[in-house]
Structure formats: structure tokens, C-alpha cells
């Protein structure tokens, strides 16, 4: 059995081909800066995605949040194990909602007392 021995020979390149030999550093200054920039960009995208998921679409960072809520539960009263009565203020109206095993039903829908008491409203008697 013959064993072949690998020989290491030095190959010379033509002088027209530039060859730069230096230390075999894995990371250089430019690639380090690129990695830091990429990591910062990834963090910004993840932060924005989490804010969108938490605040909902169109409300990034709370920019579109209103000062007062449109819907306010004034009081809720459980009537039985499967039914509840809710009084809700919604856009100047007061709603009485019955919620049960068959679904929800609006029992009363009238203007809120504060809105009805304003001068010039239709409820004023001359």
C-alpha cells in the first residue's frame, strides 16, 4: 500500500492581482459598526411592534388617545347567575343593557341627564 503525502507548495500570483495579507481578525471596525447599527434597528422595530400590539393599530405611542373614554360603565348589577344589568354612558347617551345567556339587549336608550338639562334642548318647556 502506498501512502500519498500531501505537499505544501507556495503558489505565486501574478503581480497584476492585488493580494492583501493581514491579521486574520474576524471582525473589523466597519463590520462592528454595521452590527451595532443592525442591532439598534432590530430593537427599534421590536419596540414599535410591541407598542402597536398593546395600543392597537393607529395608536402608536398613545398619539391618538382621547382625553376621556367614549364608553363608561356607570354601574353593573348581577340579577341572577346568568344575567346582569348594566348602565352605560356612551357619547352623551345613557343606555340600560340587559346581558344574559341569550345575549345582550338594549332596554333603554335616552340622552344623558346632563346633556338633556342644557339650555335650548328639546326637553325645555316654555
Automatic annotation (TrEMBL):
Transmembrane segments: 31-49
Keywords recorded for this protein, A-Z: Cell projection, Cilium, Flagellum, Membrane, Transmembrane, Transmembrane helix
Top-level taxonomic group: Bacteria
Keyword Transmembrane belongs to the record: yes
Protein name as catalogued: Flagellar biosynthetic protein FliO
Amino acid at each position: 500500500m502506498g501512502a500519498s503525502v500531501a505537499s505544501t507548495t507556495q503558489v505565486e500570483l501574478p503581480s497584476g492581482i492585488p493580494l492583501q495579507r493581514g491579521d486574520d481578525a474576524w471582525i473589523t471596525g466597519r463590520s462592528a459598526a454595521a452590527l451595532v447599527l443592525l442591532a439598534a434597528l432590530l430593537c427599534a422595530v421590536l419596540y414599535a411592534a410591541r407598542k402597536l400590539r398593546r395600543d392597537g393599530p393607529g395608536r402608536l405611542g398613545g398619539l391618538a388617545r382621547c382625553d376621556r373614554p367614549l364608553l363608561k360603565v356607570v354601574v353593573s348589577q348581577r340579577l341572577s347567575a346568568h344575567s346582569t344589568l348594566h348602565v352605560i354612558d356612551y357619547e352623551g347617551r345613557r343606555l340600560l343593557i340587559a346581558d344574559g345567556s341569550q345575549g345582550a339587549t338594549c332596554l333603554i336608550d335616552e340622552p344623558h341627564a346632563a346633556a338633556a338639562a342644557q339650555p335650548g334642548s328639546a326637553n325645555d318647556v316654555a
